[in-house]
Amino acid sequence: MIAPTAPAAAPPPPPPPSSFVSRAESAHHRLYEFAKTALIKIFVFPYATVCDLYCGGGADTDKWDEAQIGHYIGIDASTSGISEAREIWESQRKPYTAEFCELDPSIENLDSYLQDKGIPADIVCCLQHLHLCFESEERARSLLHNVSSLLKPGGYFFGITPDSSTIWTKYQKNVEASHSKGSGLKPNTVPNCIRSENYVITFEVEEEKFPLFGKKYQLKFSNDITSETHCLVHFPSLIRLAREAGLEYVEMQNLTEFYDDNRAQFAGMLFSYGVNFVDPRGKLLARSYDMLGLYSTFVFQKPDPDVVPPIMTPMLQDGNHAHEERHEWIGSSWRQQIPADEEKPGHADTSLGPSGILVEHEKGILGPGPADLRFQDPF
Question: Is 332:338 a contact under the CB 8 Å cutoff?
Answer without folding.
Answer: yes
